[in-house]
Write a structure and sequence with these properties.
Length: 230
């Protein structure tokens, strides 16, 4: 691994040692996820569009550099990213929320995205064959899925060995945010996410090989991780 990337990874891991008491995951059930996104579907773009846009923009920059022939977006939601992928890339988006997918299909039609489709699927148990995609992207889904490691394992399975997996997600960070995360934890699951989410546990301790790492969004609360499947 490039020493610079290793240094970035070590800095990202450091805060986790200070958050041991918060590292236990708040349970999130599949019903929590479905209920949450049924509630949020109609206002998701307005509430979470701009505030998380920096991470999406950085994720897209990597995708546009790679120009993959075939891309899978796990947790496609309302399809905010769909019109912005390379025009010659075949894009498939999956989500467990019918309400979100209905809005994503409207966006596909509005932008006439002939090489883009979405479908209902469980990201922890995908219906695709092994090594089906050149690039798999995970925009803000890792901390809202019931079993994050199962989702990572599926991303690795469906990605080609020489492909890329790109993750944008909230990860536990500074001491200031640690206090807020602890306060939010009891209600976080009920609105569909884990407030405390360890980079070390959910990225470093997986088979993913990190290629690059950069901070995103307000106060660097999120990270964009470019990785190889193994």
């Amino acid at each position: 691994m490039n020493p610079q990337h290793s240094s970035l990874e070590q800095r990202a891991k450091a805060p986790d040692a200070q958050l041991t008491a918060l590292s236990t995951e708040t349970d999130v059930s599949i019903n929590d996820v479905k209920t949450s996104y049924r509630r949020w579907a109609g206002v998701y773009d307005a509430v979470f569009g701009a505030v998380l846009e920096d991470g999406r923009r950085k994720l897209l920059a990597h995708v546009n550099t790679l120009k993959p022939a075939r891309l899978l977006e796990m947790g496609v939601g309302t399809g905010l990213l769909l019109p912005k992928y390379p025009s010659d890339t075949e894009v498939i988006g999956v989500d467990i929320s019918d309400d979100m997918l209905a809005l994503a299909r409207q966006r596909i039609a509005k932008h006439n995205l002939s090489r883009t489709s979405v479908q209902l699927d469980d990201c922890e148990k995908l219906s695709f064959d092994t090594a089906s995609f050149d690039c798999v992207v995970l925009p803000y889904i890792l901390s809202v899925t019931p079993r994050p490691r199962a989702l990572i394992d599926e991303a690795i399975r469906v990605c080609k060995p020489d492909g890329h997996i790109i993750i944008a997600n909230h990860f536990s960070g500074s001491k200031t945010w640690a206090a807020l995360e602890k306060i939010a934890a009891p209600v976080a699951a009920k609105i569909g996410f884990r407030s405390s989410f360890s980079y070390d546990e959910h990225i470093v301790q997986t088979p993913l090989k990190v290629v690059s790492l950069e901070r995103a969004n307000l106060l660097g609360l999120s990270k964009v991780v470019v990785s190889k499947p193994s």
